[in-house]
């Protein structure tokens, strides 16, 4: 990977022809991309779970736990039992990594306790699991035209309904996914 191709803080937008069931019509936020590979969170695969369900399973009670109706997303096919919280900065929790000035990711339980107490981040997205790529794998997939990629937009991550994120992320690049064919063509 050369330094000019770092995709940290970018969207990875599945091309319409990508048939992998883990990534069909998804938009993934790339949290880290380096010579060791890439890690991201799928932003548009809500599960049937709500944050309050997770808090109950973990026996986390708080003053405002009853208001924890945030959806929980399937962040990717890797380690689906592990939780991730993408969020706006503010308080630093035990396992917080700052991705940009606008977006951090936390993997420790203390952020869930803070949310349950009404002291969590202003904006957040909760996911179980993540998407991961080995060294060179993501670059090869990009070369095979499996993905579009472009700079991330925190509004799409935190404010847009999940069913609109895939097309909105592509629209930021000037691409209408409805006009793209799922078939590769040859001249």
Kindly give the count of domains.
1
Give me the Rg, rounded: 17 Å
Shape: globular
CATH topology: VC0467-like
Low-confidence stretches: none
Tell me the name of the CATH homologous superfamily. VC0467-like
CATH level-1 class: Alpha Beta
Helix content: 10-25%
Topology pattern, helix = H, strand = E: EEEEHEEEEHEHEHH
Number of strands: 10
Strand content: 25-35%
Structural class: alpha+beta
Instruction: Report the span from N to C terminus.
Output: 30 Å
**Helix count from the secondary structure assignment:** 5
> What is the CATH architecture descriptor?
3-Layer(aba) Sandwich
Mean pLDDT: 89
Biggest β-sheet description: 10 strands, mixed
Describe this structure in words.
The protein is α+β, with helices and mostly antiparallel strands. It has a single domain, classed as VC0467-like (3-Layer(aba) Sandwich). It has 5 helices and 10 strands; from the N terminus they run ββββαββββαβαβαα. The protein has helices at 51-57, 109-116, 137-143, 154-158, 165-171, and strands at residues 10-14, 27-34, 37-42, 46-50, 71-74, 78-87, 96-98, 104-106, 124-133, 147-151. Strands 1, 2, 3, 4, 5, 6, 7, 8, 9 and 10 form a 10-stranded mixed β-sheet that branches. A hairpin with a 2-residue loop joins β2 (27-34) and β3 (37-42). It is globular and about 50 Å long.
Which descriptors apply to this entry?
5 helices; VC0467-like; 10 strands; 32% strand; alpha+beta; ten-stranded mixed beta sheet; 187 residues
Brief synopsis:
The protein has 187 residues and is α+β, with helices and mostly antiparallel strands. It is built from five helices and ten strands.
């Amino acid at each position: 990977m050369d330094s000019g191709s770092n995709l940290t803080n970018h969207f990875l937008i599945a091309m319409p022809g990508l048939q992998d069931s883990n990534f069909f019509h998804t938009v993934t936020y790339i949290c880290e991309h380096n010579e060791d590979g890439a890690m991201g969170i799928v932003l548009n695969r809500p599960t049937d779970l709500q944050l309050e369900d997770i808090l109950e399973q973990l026996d986390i009670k708080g003053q405002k736990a009853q208001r924890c109706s945030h959806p929980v997303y399937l962040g990717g096919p890797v380690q689906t039992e592990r939780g991730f919280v993408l969020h706006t900065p503010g308080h630093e929790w035990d396992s917080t990594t700052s991705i940009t000035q606008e977006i951090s990711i936390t993997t420790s339980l203390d952020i869930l306790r803070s949310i349950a107490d009404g002291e969590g981040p202003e904006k957040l997205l909760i996911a179980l699991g993540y998407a991961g790529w080995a060294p060179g794998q993501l670059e090869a997939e990009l070369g095979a035209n499996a993905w579009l990629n472009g700079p991330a937009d925190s509004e799409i991550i935190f404010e847009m309904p999940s069913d609109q994120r895939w097309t909105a992320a592509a629209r930021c690049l000037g691409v209408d996914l409805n006009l793209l064919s799922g078939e590769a063509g040859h001249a």
